[in-house]
Fold:
Amino acid sequence: MNAATEPLRVDRPAKTLRELTLEKMREAIFSQHFRPGDRLVERDLCERLGVSRTIVREVLRHLETEGLVSNLPARGPIVSRTTAAEALQIYEIRGALEAIAARACAEARQPATITALDACLARILAGYARGNSTLVLEATSDFYRTLFVSSGKEVAWNIVNALTMRINHLRSMTIKTPGREVEGPRQMQRIVEAIRAGKGEEAHAAALQHVASASAIAQRLLQEREGG
Structure:
């Protein structure tokens, strides 16, 4: 009898309990179940998540490295607050690097890249249609990963990837604004069409315009929050 058919064999789960807990906590932050400034009390999280305090501590430390959690001396872990000024810097970095990657993709004009970007866009639209923001975030991250990797801009991707969770935290707000489910994919489609046509400067401009649009929405939302 081989290992695959051994009746007593314990199948290893695809994800560890720590990974599943991390995903749940990210989702809770992105969905605003835990809002910026909310305290994250270990004991309460253990009870609500059904996991050990060791796992909760590891997950909170990981979320802190991603910029989603801040550890304050007097209060302990809280959901991080992103200010309008910080968001503006994040979008400025995104815009500059994504525009460079889009132009490089257009100049390379690789059919496999265009196919992959089309597939990501289809998933984004499907996520919006289902009201599934998690799918929208995952597919959008895959869209940009494809853009950077296919253009050979790995260093730029490493910079953006370091900000991915903070970007997704902002994106989780902007994608829920009225009309964004139409305008966002439409702007991304313009990027793809410019790449398909091999028009580097058009791809560069389309990428900048898309990020500028998202930045304006985030600025408004964050300024309203700060004002409130």
